[in-house]
Amino acid sequence: MTSTDSSSGTRSRLPQVRRTPGPAGAPSTPPTERSGTDFVVDCAVYVEGRRQAPVAYDEALRAAVEGDGFVWLGLHEPTEAELAGIAAVYGLHPLAVEDAVEAHQRPKLDSYDDSLFMVLKTARYVPHTTLTATSEVVNTGEVMVFLGSHYVITVRHGDHGGLKDLRNSLEGQTDLLQQGPSSVLYAVTDLVVDHFVEVAEAVEDDVEELEVSVFSPTRTDDTSRIYQLKRELMQLRRAVQPLEIPLSTLAERPNDLVPDTMRSYFRDVQDHALRVRDQVGSLDELLSSILQAALARTSVAQNDDMRRISSYAGLIAAPTLIAGVYGMNFEHMPELDWTFGYPFALLLMATLCYLLYRGFKRNGWL
After folding, report:
1. What strands lie across the sheet with 70-76, from one edge to the other?
2. How far is it, in rounded angstroms, from Cα 17 to Cα 161?
3. Is residue 174 within 8 Å of 50, Cβ to Cβ?
4. Is the whole model's pTM more than 0.90, yes or no?
5. Which residues sit opposite 5 in a β-bridge?
6. pLDDT tens per residue, range 306-354
7. What's the confidence (pLDDT) of residue 195?
8. Which of 9, 144, 290, 361 is most buried (CB neighbours < 10 A)?
9. What is the SS3 assignment for 48?
């Protein structure tokens, strides 16, 4: 067995599938008891690019081999026992089955004797009215794909992925389906990368909003919001970046399960994924610069506050000094018997305060 990990991609020829995500922080639906084949979302045999009559998933492989076609079996969060039954019928490698059940895998491509196993991270943007220090921005899931000479099995974890809509779209492209099971793998990777593009564009809008807020004339404290967005962007980076090597392997290295005609399709996805990777990296660098700018503005604002406080302290010190001198109880004090001594002292205080105020104002301290 060999394993490859990393990141990449390009624009899909398939229709875009947009799914409206739920509100941030919405509680997930608790797992419910399942019976029978509820974990099987769809199962179909395709011969010469056309869907055949319905058949049970445990009989589909035999029908596909007899018709020189392939099975596309779609599963949603199967349990270990459920996937073990599928593995027995389709001859899936136990290590790949273990990864598919446990989920939380890093994007990768594993090659076995007569099959491929690919893990993809899916992502969706969580809409929010205002970005806060606790906003969920990027929500991720997983799609695993088992690929054999006469079958392709997709295992979805999470509430997004759009594979049902993808199947409907792909069934209208018989020329592509005639390329075999690898056409489904291409379509899935293409859809996942297209969703990355949508998420990156939406996150870019959040970055622009933060940038405007940080550099606005009004004093704002955006440090916690910037840090939160950087954390959310890291989830997208972890989904995109590891795809480079798997997609490069599918696009460049000959493989019995991936016809030469399909390698150009994977190369297209790879180019697109690379652009998303670069976009995510640029957004992260921009957020780092915005964070530094926010911290610098906070430091400047604190310095301004200290200068104002020091200026007002200086204004108070001048009359305090004079009042302190004339308030000392000594017998021999200058001007004690002078009629205008008191108003003169007040005038002197006011004059010194005015001169200090003018000086501070001219230097920009007030």
Report:
1. 2-5, 108-111, 116-125, 138-147, 151-157, 70-76, 40-47, 50-51
2. 9
3. yes
4. no
5. 108
6. 777 777 777 777 777 667 666 665 555 666 666 666 677 777 778 877 7
7. 94
8. 9
9. coil
